[in-house]
Amino acid sequence: MALLLRDMLIIIFFVALGLMHENVDAVPFTVGGNTGWTIPPSSNYYDKWAAQQIFQLGDTLVFKFTSPSHDVMEVSPADVASCNTSSPILTNTSSNAVITLETSGTHSYICSIGLHCSSGMRFTIEVQRSMDSTPAANVTTPTLEPNWDSSSGSLFRIRHFLPSGVWGVAITAWLVL
C-alpha cells in the first residue's frame, strides 16, 4: 500500500512539474512616464522612453492626454518616420487611451493632430512574446531620464509560479515519505 501511495505521489510530482511554468503579469506602461502623451521636450523623447522598457504580449500602453488636443494612432513602421496618417492601424481619440499589446513584433504610434508627430509625438516599440525572448538587435539602452516614472514597467514585473495549494502539499508529502 505504501508503495502504491508513493507511486501515485511520484506521478503527481511529475504532473505538477509539467504544469509548473512562469507567469508574468501584464504591465501598464504610461507612455512618456510623468510627462504623458504631449509635445515632448525633444524630438526623440518618446523613442528614448520606449528604449528603457521591455514590452510583452498583454502589456498595455496608457496614453495620458487631453482630448481633442491630442490623439493616438498606430501606424506601420514605414509610416512613423514620415508621420503618414493616411492608413492607420487604429485611432483613439479618448483621453487616457489604453492600448493592449496583442501581437508581438514592431508597433509604431503617433499623434495625428497638426504637426505634433513631426514635433516628436511618435515612437516605435518591439513587443516580445515572453520575458525569455531576445530583444531586437537594434534596440539601444540610453540612460533613464529623471522625470520618467519607473515605478511601473519592465523593472517591476511580478512573477508567479505553480504549483501551490494541492500540488505543494502533494510534493511535500512525497518528499516526506
Automatic annotation (TrEMBL):
| CDD domains to which the protein is assigned, alphabetical | Phytocyanin
Cited Pfam families: Cu_bind_like
Identify the keywords attached in UniProt to this record, alphabetized. Copper, Glycoprotein, Metal-binding, Signal
User: Signal peptide position in this chain?
Assistant: 1-26
Identify the residues that the record assigns to the Phytocyanin domain, covering every copy. Answer: 27-129
Annotated coiled-coil segments of the chain: none
GO MF: metal ion binding
InterPro entries per UniProt: BlueCu_1_BS, Cupredoxin, Phytocyanin-like, Phytocyanin_dom
Supply the name of the protein.
Phytocyanin domain-containing protein
